Amino acid sequence: MAGRRAISPVIATVIIVAVTIAVAIAVAFWMTGIIGLFTGFEQLQITTIMDTQQGIQLTVRNTGTQTATITDIFINGRSCAAQLNCDVNVDGNQEQAQNNRYTITFNPGQQRQITVAFRLQDAQAAGLGDIGPGTSIEVKLLTASGKEYPKLLVLQEWSPP
Q1: Domain count, the chain
Q2: For residue 9, what pLDDT band results from cuts at 50, 70 and 90?
Q3: Is residue 87 assigned to a domain?
Q4: Which residue segment(s) compose the domain that 20 sits in?
């Protein structure tokens, strides 16, 4: 045993540094994956809003990285699902509120067209007063995560029937 020699301190230091760097890189990649899971977000953008003969027409895009679900649409602070009994069409299909909630889903990058119409008597009963050309309308989208996306419109063509 007297003839055996150990590795030099310099080589031992190089091996320890190399192992430390390899472990640090592995931990960095692992943490990046975990952070990516927790940093997904929804972000809806109302790209256009206008009034038409059918109602208030919105073009909405999800620019976030997670799926977003619209659960209600508010007109001047009044719920379409619970108070105004709105007719909501999404990409030409009727959307029904269930338990005073909608389920209008947007995948990341998806764009959809939403048309909202309500009757004048429902608006007056909900306390919105007279609505017609020149009236300012705030349309607000509420998502399942609790985020609100408002947009203001001054009516020009459409007035509730």
Answers
A1: 2
A2: confident
A3: yes
A4: 1-39
